[in-house]
Amino acid sequence: MKYDQQSFYRKALWAAGMALWLCLPLLAQNDGMTAEQVVSLKSVRQAAIDPAGQHIAYVLSVPREAEDAPGRSYAELWVRPFAGGDAVQYSSQPYSATSVSWSPDGKFLYFLSKRAEHHPQTQVYRIPVNGGMAEAVTGHPQAVSQYSLSPDGRWVAFVSKDPLSKEEAADEKAGKDWIIPDSNFKYSRLYLHDNQSGESRQLVKDDLSVLDIYWSPDSRSLVIRATETPLTDDDYMYSKFYTVSADQGSVKPLCQTEGKLGDLAFSPDGKQIAFLGAVDISDPLAQSLFVVPAEGGAPKNLSGDFEGSGVSLDWLDAKTILLLSSEGTVRTLRSVDAASGKMKLLVKGAPNLQSFSLHPQKKIFAAVADAPAHPNEVYSGTLKDGKLQRLTDHNPQLAEVQLARQEVIEWQGADGWRIEGVLTYPLNYREGQRYPLALQIHGGPEGVSLNGWTTRPTYPVQVLAANGYLVLEPNYRGSGGRGVAFSKADHDDLGGKEFEDVLAGVDALVERGLADNEQVCTGGWSYGGYFSAWAATRHSQRFKAAMVAAGLTNWMSFTGTTDIPHEMSLVHWNSYWYQQRDLHWER
């Protein structure tokens, strides 16, 4: 289950939850991380290596100050030498710059930005690397949501929604901005901008809502991920890959797929395509690696029984794919033979890679990564030895903050299954002393808790540890990071054995003399919120307090009102609520 809100709304709910957490007895001085420090942390969103392999452009997320107008965090654009050295800032507040990419000649940085002096809506911009002002590339009437620069640098493919009708615009201006589901669809259309002529045109005329864009190496065609309607449920469950000719805009399906789809990349010679996808309609993640001929055909699953969940990919050469995955509580980077599926481990956290940008000729990459001691920063890496070098430190204040120790633990869950979790000790932990236990339950349920930077406004792990809590983030059955079978193991049994896995984790910490069985609380967002509501009612004798954030408490009413009824039903329950009414009512 997924959920999104404006940052200020999330913080308000989180503050209320924190009041609940902190009303319990505290056993340590608050000399560690504070809530104020958490919401002020900066974090790197994206990093892109230049065509020469000498510089890294990256986007830095900077939280707004209390006196700023409500809105999302600012996004600053920076460039830093790959080998290390001083960084240069290319955009600053009040402007934001996202989705950065390099021109093929390395002379320009492209990005998305909203700058009122040029255009009232978000557009594609570019700025000369060697100095100069940012200039608008597109001037589309509506906002541009994403773009992709062709490998030859001539074309900018971009996506923008259909405009409002005159009547709809008048209603919106009058405050009548309500949304009626399943009606008045606004498709996200694919457009093509010519950098030579400055002209833009709609490329795909079909009623397809475009979600992602991928250029072929020769710049003659694209692959898009698209849906037949712009419904959120279709995005999750029913998107397909289509091949689009760059000259005529003709569209044809790439291959047969079922279920969720993820990242995609062409091989350097343009003959093959690798993508991440689900194995069937009930797979909760686009986590398996497939290859298919670029002209279309039957996809081949290279993942087999791989006990990990693919996150992103790229091609190293025409025969080798690089696969970034979650494996247990860490991230890994592996090379995969495109013919046999044979894998080789190249990098294993920590730090945990969140994304990577490859320079295949030099076999080096830029990466965004976190670690138990810091949020996302920029790293450089080499494939030869798998070594990573940290290049940025955007939160130097953390050097003055005492952080609690964390580690990965294992215990036996229901039916003797091996279950993992990330355990954070109270800041001033003393061996032999028992502490209040706070569970921090991830959402999904196909989410995963990694042994990296675990603290954020919605999951204030280090704040809890600073206030004397033992904190457990369990990866119960149904979580990602352990392969398809494990992520499906809770299907048709939500709140069942997966919950027993968590209770077994509590028991294990009590048996080890770490947790006080009389002081256990729980909290989480989305599916973690459901988990906590379930704990506070069905298992109220085990939990003294629960924080339910963006959670659900009634499967029947939720299925009838959510914007993802098919995802919740076909993926997590393997059926619709009316086919198992008693079980849905019980849970």
Properties at a glance:
587 residues, 11 helices, four-stranded antiparallel β-sheet, six-stranded mixed β-sheet, Rossmann fold
Task: Explain how this protein is built.
There is one protein chain. The chain has 587 residues and is of the alpha+beta class. It has a domain of 183 residues: 3-Layer(aba) Sandwich (Rossmann fold). It contains eleven helices and 34 strands. β17 and β18 form a beta hairpin. α9 packs across α10. The longest helix is centred in the first third of the chain and has 15 residues. The radius of gyration is 24 Å and the shape is globular. The N terminus is likely disordered.
Brief characterization of the structure:
The protein has 587 residues and is of the alpha+beta class.
- Annotation, overall tally of beta strands: 34
Question: What is the CA-based Rg, rounded?
Answer: 24 Å
Strand order of the largest sheet: 29-30-32-31-33-34
Mean pLDDT across all amino acids: 92
Second rung of CATH, namely the architecture of the domain at 7-37 and 402-553: 3-Layer(aba) Sandwich
CATH class category name of the domain at 7-37 and 402-553? Alpha Beta
Strand percentage: 35-45%
What is this structure's SSE topology?
Blueprint: H1 7-21, H2 35-39, E1 43-49, E2 55-62, E3 74-81, E4 88-89, E5 98-102, E6 108-113, E7 123-128, E8 135-136, E9 144-149, E10 155-161, H3 166-173, E11 188-194, E12 200-202, E13 209-215, E14 221-227, H4 232-237, E15 240-245, E16 251-253, E17 261-266, E18 272-277, E19 288-293, E20 300-301, E21 309-317, E22 320-327, E23 330-337, E24 343-348, E25 352-359, E26 364-371, E27 374-382, E28 388-390, E29 406-412, E30 418-424, E31 435-441, H5 461-466, E32 470-475, H6 484-487, H7 497-511, E33 515-525, H8 527-537, E34 545-549, H9 555-561, H10 565-573, H11 581-586
Parallel strand pairs: 31-32, 31-33, 33-34
Antiparallel strand pairs: 1-2, 2-3, 3-4, 5-6, 6-7, 7-8, 9-10, 10-11, 11-12, 13-14, 14-15, 15-16, 17-18, 18-19, 19-20, 21-22, 22-23, 23-24, 25-26, 26-27, 27-28, 29-30, 30-32
